[in-house]
Design a protein that fits this description.
The protein is of the alpha+beta class. It is about 25% helix and about 20% strand. The protein is built from 9 helices and 17 strands. Strands 5, 8, 10, 11, 12, 14, 16 and 17 form an 8-stranded antiparallel sheet that branches. Strands 9-15-13 form a 3-stranded antiparallel sheet, with no helix packed on it. The chain has a two-stranded antiparallel sheet with strand order 1-4. A hairpin with a 2-residue loop joins strand 16 and strand 17. Helix 5 packs across helix 6. The structure holds zinc ion.
């Protein structure tokens, strides 16, 4: 119910916002950005039912990786409700037609995806989030914004186009970003609204005994659980976790919902672990994330599965950037081999 309420809220927001389409002139076809392994989160069945059609159209337009962006966009534009809004990508205006001229959701996807592709192909490595924002502002935005999407850029464009005129604007996204207004041109929150339905493939729901997801993307296991010669001390000891040799700065994800009970620099009770976070999932299940370059959570934070809790580093007893990950059945022990409970590829 919560998801649906949110969807309805966003839908109302977007409908009132209208849909500005200004085709950017002189856009040449260049290399398309690698949009990587982004997936969707929190999409209802009403939207997911269009996935096959969206996939077909994205392939036709040679933007196969853009599927999650299109589905998230459909969610924001229409909530996927094709009965109420047959033009589910709200792209009638991109054809110069009055709003909601399109009466067939399939046609809306065909036209909408082609329009999205024209934005994504308008330069080299165009950030899909900039195209998303441009889907609302018009692609004139693509020659205004920086290479990488930023909310500040989106605000600046709306401010410029509106001449600084503000209007009251309150929804869950504006509120969460600390705003109760927007500039009176397009919707400066648009990409943020779409973004809430995007996540890494990691966030697709867990599996295994505890329903865990992987704590990193594209895991590179460098050391397994069990007895080994400690690479730092040289002593023979038990390795209580799994090491992922990810590049420094890679995101670390909470493997399940829980509460942060430890988030600290090296020291007792987790000496040698560097910047270390422990999440309590229940009284008999904890996960630990060690050697972080920086942490994104504090003690007491409630975290959701897939939430970024920190970044890979090499703090504490470590010979190079990696995530040392542990599963514990009590706060200070009862170690479980993570490989047996993680959805290892
Ligand atoms: Zn380790």
């Amino acid at each position: 119910m919560k998801k649906m309420a949110l969807g309805v809220l966003l839908f109302i927001g977007v409908v009132f916002m209208g849909f500005l389409m200004i085709l950017g002139g002189g856009l040449s076809e260049k290399k398309v950005a690698d949009v990587g392994s982004i997936g969707n989160v929190n999409l209802p069945e009403e939207v997911l039912r269009w996935k096959d059609k969206v996939t077909t159209e994205c392939q036709k337009n040679e933007i196969p990786d853009a599927v999650p962006y299109i589905l998230a966009l459909i969610m924001v534009e229409s909530g996927g409700n094709a009965e109420k809004t047959p033009d589910i990508m709200q792209c009638s205006e991109s054809k110069g037609w009055p709003p909601n001229t399109i009466q067939d959701p399939n046609e809306s996807i065909e036209i909408g995806v082609a329009y999205f592709a024209s934005g994504l192909k308008s330069g080299e490595n165009v950030d899909p989030l900039n195209v998303i924002q441009g889907y609302n502002y018009g692609y004139g935005y693509l020659s205004f914004c920086d290479d990488v999407y930023s909310f500040e850029n989106a605000i600046a464009f709306s401010k410029q186009q509106s001449g600084g005129q503000r209007v009251t604007y309150i929804n869950v996204i504006s509120t969460s970003l600390g705003y109760s207004w927007r500039y009176n041109y397009g919707n400066m929150f648009y990409a943020q609204m779409v973004k809430q339905y995007l996540g890494t493939e990691n966030n697709q729901g867990g599996s295994g005994e505890y329903g865990f997801i992987l704590p990193v993307q594209n895991p590179i296991v460098s050391s397994g659980f069990g007895p080994r010669v400690n690479p730092v001390t040289g002593a023979y000891s038990n390795h209580n976790g799994l090491d992922f040799a990810q590049p420094a700065g890679d995101k670390i994800y909470a493997v399940a919902d829980g509460e942060v009970v430890i988030a600290q620099a090296d020291g007792v009770p987790v000496s040698g672990y560097g910047n270390c976070v422990i999440i309590k999932h229940d009284d008999e299940l904890y996960t630990l994330y060690a050697h972080q370059s920086s942490m994104a959570v504090r003690v007491g934070d409630k975290v959701k599965q897939g939430q970024v809790i920190g970044y890979v580093g090499s703090t504490g007893q470590s010979t190079g950037p990696h995530l040392h990950f542990e599963v514990r059945l009590s706060l200070y022990g009862n170690f479980v081999d993570p490989a047996t409970v993680l959805p290892m590829p």
